[in-house]
Amino acid sequence: MKKRFSPEQVVRILNTAGIGAKNSNLCRKYGVSEQTFYNLRTQCGDMSIGDVRKMKALEGKTAN
Q: pLDDT confidence of 2, banded at 50, 70, 90?
């Protein structure tokens, strides 16, 4: 199954929620359920975009 959003996009959406946007409005805007939003927040809530890029780089090194 193909993921709908890249990890960088997920972090941007979660950061938008962190600066005061209502979660229900964000869910409607991006077409995800509130349960999916909360699951993403528990998985990636405290990450920054730089952290996601480092994680991808490390995964790339271990895969080769």
A: low
